[in-house]
Amino acid sequence: MFRILKQSLRTGVVTEAAPSHNDAELERLGIEVRRHIDARFGGSLAIRQVDAGSCNGCELEIHALNNPFYDVERFGIHFVASPRHADVLLVTGPVSRHMETALRRTWRATPSPKFVIAAGSCACDGGEIGVSYASCGTIENVIPVDVKIPGCPPSPVDLLKGLLGALEIDR
User: CB burial class (10 A; 0-12, 13-18, 19+) of residue 163?
Assistant: First the structure.
């Protein structure tokens, strides 16, 4: 055991440097999103995230939106557990056949006016999976989509940009 501890101390820290982030861009986006939310939703935007069959890469980036660095709740955005409380459906992954009915039910349960955002390459164009016996492919094959956020996975800043794009749609 001491041999392992000694080797660890000799080796030191061998991690990558943290990625650089543009705090000014994040703040600018957040303020713009907040302005739209205040004008259209009375100060709060509820998002229901639906994993329709993804690899969970997009979910990791979506969860990052709630970490202390991005902290999207300060801009009036929060995630909800029920589609009945949601203003936005944020859907990831190609729609597996087993999730097709659940996604349709979730979409129907979300009150209008609602926005549907397809997040990630798989949700936008089917990704590597496409249409098969086990997959319906893109989200558009199952429910109408308002905004597509490409990327594998899209970064949290890209997700905020896509959300801003949805809020700028005139309804």
Answer: buried
Token duo for residue 157: 């800043």
**How far from each other are the two terminal CA atoms of the chain, in whole angstroms?**
65
pLDDT tens track of the chain, all 171 residues?
Answer: 888 888 888 888 877 776 666 688 888 999 999 999 998 888 899 999 999 998 999 999 999 999 888 899 999 999 999 999 999 999 999 999 999 999 999 999 999 889 999 999 999 988 888 888 888 889 999 999 999 999 999 999 999 999 999 988 876
Tell me whether residue 3 is exposed, middle or buried, using C-beta atoms within 10 angstroms of its C-beta: 0 to 12, 13 to 18, 19 or more.
exposed
Q: What tokens does 86 get?
A: 């949601």
Q: What would you measure as the largest C-alpha separation in the chain, in angstroms? A: 66
Q: Characterise 78 by phi-psi region: left (phi > 0), alpha (psi -120 to 50), beta (else).
A: beta
**Cis peptide bond upstream of 153, omega within 30:** yes
Q: What is the C-alpha to C-alpha distance for residues 97 and 78, in angstroms, rounded to an integer?
A: 29
- pTM of this structure: 0.84
Pairing assessment for the beta strands 95-96 and 77-79 based on DSSP bridges: unpaired
Phi, psi of 86 (to 5 degrees): -95, 150
